[in-house]
Write a structure and sequence with these properties.
Layout: E1 2-3, H1 6-24, E2 34-40, H2 44-60, E3 63-69, H3 75-86, E4 93-96, H4 106-110, H5 124-131, H6 140-151, E5 160-164, H7 171-180, E6 184-188, H8 195-199, E7 204-207, E8 224-228, E9 232-234, E10 237-239, H9 244-247, E11 251-254, H10 261-281
Parallel strand pairs: 1-11, 2-3, 2-4, 5-6, 5-7, 7-8, 8-11
Antiparallel strand pairs: 9-10
Helix pairs in contact: 1-10, 2-10, 6-7, 6-10
Length: 282
């Protein structure tokens, strides 16, 4: 069993982004890419995520802008901030930190973002490009998972992949990217019957179900690759959706939590911001 070091892979990606920013922007006297993060206050986890993105921007030599809105903000207030960033030529990418409070519609809000600045690929226009294989960027977590597999030289083409979870941000997007890499893909979810029978056939198992330590060895084929996307806060600390100690001995490769997919999500956000900045120059 090999434990995949997501931190190491993420550092490689961020270093490559940093070098491109220096070469293609700083050394040519151009303004560096800028990522704007909008956070509606009230979610402690969101604050942690935004801080990590701000730190990553600094490492990559990019600028960051944090726009904080009160927890009781109206849709009009949120849209006004998004419109302001859409029209700001110094802003390369816009990320709306999710989840939002109940009074705000996440779909309407994300689709207010200009597709040219949509660094998490959640606008309907960019999702359409993704699912028609015409994309230049893809959702950060899904992109990170594919990069993780390729970095470890794990064969995807012709393999049977099972994705547990059907969110746009992760499940559906990574399933689509796996299919584009010629895997045969099955999506499981909370209504799937006899899930173990399906997952035990998977050469590659991607888990994004949102339940701490839910997946045990009984769900896993011997020699499978298991990628754990879950981040769950428990009294024992951060754990994934996969029971690592139980599942790891059965795997050929497995990603840990923390230190697996999480760092790659942030690294791919930096890469997407750079790509948006480059596309806006064309």
């Amino acid at each position: 069993m090999k434990r995949i070091d997501g931190k190491k892979i993420a550092e490689e990606i961020k270093t490559a982004v940093k070098e491109k920013v220096e070469k293609n922007f700083k050394n040519q006297g151009k303004s560096v890419p800028k990522l704007a993060c909008i956070i509606v206050e009230g979610n402690k986890a969101s604050e942690v995520y935004v801080a990590s993105k701000e730190k990553a921007c600094a490492f990559c030599g990019m600028e960051s802008l944090i726009v904080r809105l009160a927890e009781d903000s109206t849709e009009e207030k949120l849209f006004a901030e998004i419109d302001k960033l859409n029209n700001d030529k110094t802003v390369s990418g816009i990320l709306l930190q999710l989840p939002l409070p109940a009074q705000l519609d996440a779909d309407r809000a994300t689709n207010r973002i200009s597709p040219q600045k949509d660094v998490d690929c959640l606008t309907y226009e960019n999702l359409g490009k993704l699912f028609s294989s015409k994309h230049k960027i893809a959702p950060c977590t899904a992109t990170g998972i594919i990069k993780m597999l390729k970095h470890e030289h794990i064969e995807i083409s012709g393999k049977r992949a099972v994705v547990i979870g059907r969110s746009l941000l992760v499940g559906k997007s990574v399933a689509n990217l796996l299919e584009q890499e010629n895997a045969t893909v099955t999506i499981c979810h909370s209504r799937t019957k006899d899930m173990q029978k399906i997952t035990k056939k998977a050469d590659i198992l991607i888990v994004a179900i949102g339940k701490a330590n839910y997946i045990t060895a009984d769900y896993v084929k011997k020699g499978a690759v298991v990628i754990d996307v879950g981040i769950n806060r428990t009294e024992a600390g951060l754990v994934g959706d996969v029971n690592f100690e139980d599942v790891a001995p059965k795997c050929s490769y497995i990603s840990p939590v923390p230190g697996g997919v999480g760092p790659l999500t942030v690294a791919c956000l930096m890469e997407n911001t750079l790509t948006c900045a480059e596309n806006q120059e064309k």
